[in-house]
Design goal:
Pfam family, one: DUF465
Number of helices: 2
InterPro entries: DUF465
Order of helices and strands: HH
Organism: Elioraea tepida
Protein name: DUF465 domain-containing protein
Number of strands: 0
Length: 59
C-alpha cells in the first residue's frame, strides 16, 4: 500500500469516527465509555496521519 493510499484510508476512517462520535453525542443519554473510546481512536488516527505526513518525502 502506498503512503498516499494509506493516508486516504486513515482519513476516511477518521471521518467515519467523527460521524459516530456526533451520533453518540447527540443521543439523549450518550454512552460515555463508548464515546471516550471513539475519541481516543480518532485521536490515534490523527496522530498516525500526522506522523506519516512528516515522514513523507518532499515532492
Amino acid at each position: 500500500m502506498s503512503l498516499q493510499s494509506r493516508l486516504v484510508t486513515l482519513s476516511e476512517r477518521h471521518a467515519a469516527l467523527e460521524l459516530r462520535i456526533a451520533e453518540e453525542g447527540g443521543r439523549p443519554r450518550p454512552n460515555e465509555t463508548a464515546l471516550a473510546a471513539l475519541k481516543r481512536e480518532k485521536l490515534r488516527l490523527k496522530e498516525e496521519m500526522e506522523r506519516l505526513k512528516r515522514t513523507r518525502p518532499a515532492s
